[in-house]
Amino acid sequence: MDNAVPLLDRDAEGADPRQRRELQGARLRDLIDRLLGAGGLQAARLRDAGVERGGDVTLDDLHRLPMVTKADLWAHYPHGLRAVDAEEIVCVHGSSGTGGRPTLIPYTAHDLDVWAQVMARALAGAGATRSSVIHNAYGYGLFTGGLGVHHGGIRLGATVLPLSGGMTDRQVRMIADLRPDILTCTPSYAIFLGEALRTAGVATDLRAGVFGAEPWTDEMRTQIQSLLGLRALDIYGLSEIIGPGVACESLDSDGMLNVAEDHFYVETVDAQGNPVPDGTPGELVFTTLTKTGMPLLRYRTGDVASLAGPVAGSPRTLRRMSKLLGRTDDMLVVRGVNVFPTEIEAVLLADVRVSPHYLIVDDRRVAARPELRVAVEPFESTVDNDRLGTELTGALRERLGISCVVSVLGPGSVPRTEVGKARRLARWTEGEPPLAGLG
Ligand code: DLL
């Protein structure tokens, strides 16, 4: 493989899959003993399922064990399903979450150590080394993006620039002055920053970007790569499991994300919770094999992706997951057709006239007549807007089987995301449109 990158942690990333499975089995049994010892919700559910000790269980039985959901975490707010004494906790992270309900996650020093390890691997897989300068524009705070990259970059021995989100003028200045080779931020901020760099006429030494925390497609990747002149890689994670680093693309992983499955065992299930085979999209379910502060057995993420084995012949033997298709709660049902916003993004951005600034609006003002609206902006003001609208409507109907109302708006009409996660889907149930110029 000509694009192979050396493994940072050969024992973990390059292990013989059979040996890794043995390790996962042993860690699962230890986890179950810890959960039973801690008492509480997960212990009670295990006992109800007839599990009295870790030795009762093998990895093959895992799919029969009880799951936990976000609702369980909310029900135990603010301390969550903490499994150790308060004095073992060294920090708390979390997310504002869907529906604005926060989820808080307690970490032990051991959890931070695992997080730094998996994040160091993720950065190394993107080609970062001890001599790298990592421009980290993920938000620092309760959100796991900023500090997750920070811990991993320091573990790797690179130089981390802790920019956090926003104050783009200063970010442009730092990139011009300190010449980072690695950029870490959300894909939407990569575009915002890329456009600011272009406007300022700053050429960069950026080689790779590690972008995640929100859905983005291969079509978006193409746009980011041409804007910033770097390799754009995807990183996935969620605070409940550890934060970024649960899975990350590497330069040699063929467009999929290597799952850090020695720490986070992954399954995919259907809506009824039954396992789905590799290659079939399903909801990701993770078991935190080594976590101690708030270990989770079979956490249902609500995120949809498919799984696959490693790239054939690669020294990297971890299982891989696809880019996320979306979240189960973001799936749109349009006149009986199920569609994820990412599928719409893929059609829109496959058209070279369309800029990455778009908004999907689920118009439910008339319950009996739901309408899907899509607002896009062309790159060039010379584009024939009527023709573009008609052609995009046709492409969406042909490729996804859905009819949408496409509005082609003037440059700058769709809100940009400078801080936090991009909001590319809006619900419209009454009153004014979520975006001027729609409807
Ligand atoms: O977003 C952790 C993270 C930070 C991941 C930085 C990558 C980079 P939460 O705020 O808890 O944690 O949100 C987790 O974000 O369940 C997914 O729905 C979504 N998400 C995270 N990464 C991706 C990705 C962080 N690469 C939720 N693609 C998850 C699509 C993603 N969605």
From TrEMBL:
It is an enzyme of class 6 (ligase). InterPro entries: Adenylate-forming_Reductase (IPR051414), AMP-bd_C_sf (IPR045851), AMP-dep_Lig_C (IPR028154), AMP-dep_synth/lig_dom (IPR000873), ANL_N_sf (IPR042099), PA_CoA_ligase (IPR011880). Residues 8-20 have a biased composition (Basic and acidic residues). GO terms for biological process: phenylacetate catabolic process. Pathway: Aromatic compound metabolism; phenylacetate degradation. Pfam families: AMP-binding (PF00501), AMP-binding_C_2 (PF14535). One of its GO terms (molecular function) is phenylacetate-CoA ligase activity. Keywords: Ligase, Nucleotide-binding. Residues 81-286 form the AMP-dependent synthetase/ligase domain. The keyword DNA repair does not apply. Coiled coil: none annotated. Residues 1-20 are annotated as: Disordered. Its EC number is 6.2.1.30. Residues 336-425 form the AMP-dependent ligase C-terminal domain. It catalyses: 2-phenylacetate + ATP + CoA = phenylacetyl-CoA + AMP + diphosphate. Catalyzes the activation of phenylacetic acid (PA) to phenylacetyl-CoA (PA-CoA). Belongs to the phenylacetyl-CoA ligase family. Monomer. This is Phenylacetate-coenzyme A ligase. It comes from Herbihabitans rhizosphaerae.
